[in-house]
Amino acid sequence: MKTLTVRSLYVGVIGALALSLSACGNAGGVQPSTQQAAERGIPVEAVYVGKGSVRASFQASAILEADEETDVIARVSGIVEEVLVEEGDYVEQGQALARIESARYRFIRDQIAAELRGVEQELSRLQQLARQQMVSTEQLERLQSRHDALNAQLQIAELDLNESVIRAPISGHIAHRFVKNGNMIQAYQPKTLFHIVNADNLRATVHLPEHALSSIRVGQNADLELQASQRSEKVTAQVTRISPIIDSGSGTFRVVLNIRNDDHALRAGMFARVQLHYAQKDQVLRIPNQAIVRVDQDSYVFIANENKAQRVKITTGIRENGWIEVIDGISEGTPVIVTGQNTLRDDATIEVIQL
């Protein structure tokens, strides 16, 4: 009985000693880790402030339109004998597009021409007699009037005969052909025979907010991004017209851009995203836009001062594509925190990861 008691006491002492050593070992392991984490600080990413170009732009969207397009109508009546072009064909100004039956107009012209020749002969004879005072002035004037009327009728007949060939009023592509061989058409009818689009110059119309009116000028450049274009680079456009009127309903004004399209790679009807540049500054201090921390109406950045974060108030200017101009507050070469700054406080301990 005594032996069991001593053995139990011995085991208990050994166990307690082991637990005590284990606890001391665990306490020694946790404390350095906590202290090390406290010394490391908050991990952040920073970049050095540098110089570069910044452009201020308004963004909008637009549908490309042909700057020059027209409907072709008939100026004389008749039956279409021949259609000479098809949709997609390129035509020059004055090129024949279709022919209307012309025999009737040719006969009318010949008839008037023959009658005019007879009147001219008679007028010549009366003029000779008038010089001999053998006919009255009134008789000569009546014949002269008849001569002039026939001459005008002949010119109209010649015009009608020429108009029996329908010609292109502008150069461009045949966008639509509505007429067919054998169609009966009337002079100056509302129905269109062809629709021609000249794609050498396209235009894009954008609507900008009222406050942009003072910043937009004729001649300013814009970049167009077109998903359906065959061009890999952005397309350059230029401001050609600015509406002086603000739409009271939408609070916007209209701006028309001109796009040169000499290679005809662009098509009317394409959708475009427009960046209209109204200001550009070169070799100015700039920082990534995400570095800015807004407090009320003021702008701040956190700079890395050794292992401490320092909040600095700055004055900003124009911005473009993720960059913003810095007018005052920091200098070139200053390390500015761009990731993790939103959770920082002034004088916080940080660990900088330089980008």
Automatic annotation (TrEMBL):
Signal peptide per UniProt: 1-27
Top-level taxon: Bacteria
Domain CusB-like beta-barrel: 205-277
Keyword field: Coiled coil, Signal
SUPFAM superfamilies, alphabetized: HlyD-like secretion proteins
Pfam families with a match to the protein in the record: Beta-barrel_RND_2, BSH_RND, YknX_C
GO cellular component, as recorded: efflux pump complex
InterPro entries documented for this protein: Beta-barrel_RND_2, MdtA-like_BSH, RND_pump_MFP, YknX-like_C
Stretches assigned to the Multidrug resistance protein MdtA-like barrel-sandwich hybrid domain: 70-193
Residue span(s) of domain YknX-like C-terminal permuted SH3-like: 284-352
This protein's record includes keyword Signal: yes
Single GO MF descriptor: efflux transmembrane transporter activity
Coiled coil: 109-160
Homology family: Belongs to the membrane fusion protein (MFP) (TC 8.A.1) family.
Name this protein carries in UniProt: Efflux RND transporter periplasmic adaptor subunit
